[in-house]
Amino acid sequence: MFNRTKSKKGRRSPMATVSLIVVGLMTTGGAYALFSSTANADDSTTTVASSQSKVNEGQKLFASNCATCHGLDAQGTSEGPSLIGVGAASVDFQVGTGRMPMAAQGPQAEEKPAQFTDEQIDAMGAYVASLGPGPAVPSTSLTDGKGDAAEGAELFRINCAMCHNVAGAGGALTEGKYAPNLQTVSGKHIYEAMATGPQNMPVFNDLNLTPEQKADIITYLKYVQDNKSPGGFALGSLGPVAEGLFIWIFGLGAVVAMTVWLTAKTN
User: At which positions is heme c 2 bound (predicted)?
Assistant: First the structure.
């Protein structure tokens, strides 16, 4: 009787085992959460510090190369517009295509070789983006030309062809301005031009053309770039006017020359 009672008292309760498991899980989970939060905090701190370093570098580049026209705080002067709110995409387009810094005042900035490295352009874009919200540099997935070319062709004809020509060959505008040729422009710069509306171009925000529609337009233009005219001379892809002039000048010229030659042979 005594031994049986003693054995019952020495037996561990099932709840004790459950309690030990719960305590162990809570201890392990708490340690993991603490470690993860510390690691994430370190990563976040590093990212913020890296971003701020890029902004600081961009500010220095801006002050030494752009502030003469746009002001030290990018608020604009009589020589150049304010850049607050234009976003990193505008900087990447203007500086990446060499249009800025502008060599001389004119009807519009000319495209020329870029004067800065990609890292410097990225830093200046980060600085301008820190001054106010604006369009960001697009992701590669929107500019790699893997959209719907047929849909892009229709969108381009409706929204862009009246200035740039249906084949993206460009065209003249008023007062010495022009719509540039798009047959050698990168997908990234085409997207940025649509998003920011440089110079004479209207802004196509995401309500006018969604990011996917912009990607389709880029796909169409890349198709045109990669597939040259299979029928012979494209004549600048300027359409029926150029083709008509070619027929009148060279076709009729050939007929007149042949007539004169035949007449001379007869005499």
Answer: 160, 163-164
Q: What is the pLDDT at residue 10?
A: 53
25 is in an annotated binding site: no
Residue 54 lies inside a defined structural domain of this protein:
yes
CATH number at residue 129: 1.10.760.10
pLDDT digit string, tens, across residues 62-94 = 999 999 999 999 999 998 999 999 999 999 999
Token pair in block for residue 103: 């060599």
Residue 182 resides in a domain = no
Domain extent, residue 104, equals 15-137
Task: Report the half-sphere exposure of 37 (CA within 13 A, side-chain side).
Answer: 6
Structure tokens at 167: 């084949």
CB 116 within 8 Å of CB 124: yes
* pTM given for the model: 0.71
Ligand-binding annotation for 69, yes or no, is: yes
Give me the amino acid identity at 6: K
User: In the prediction, which pLDDT does 235 show?
Assistant: 60
Annotation-wise, does 189 bind a ligand? no
CA atoms in the 13 A half-sphere facing the CB of 260: 6
Name the CA dihedral angle for 200, 191, 83, 74, rounded to a multiple of 10 degrees: -130
Query: Tokens 């040259």 sit at which residue?
Result: 228
* pLDDT, position 67: 94
Residue-wise pLDDT tens digits, 42-52: 444 445 665 89
Please say if the pLDDT value at position 19 is more than 70. Answer: no
Q: Is 159 annotated as a binding residue?
A: no
Residue 128 lies in a domain: yes
Contact call for residues 136 and 129 (beta carbons, < 8 A) = yes
Quote the CA–CA distance of 217 and 239 in Å, as a whole number.
20
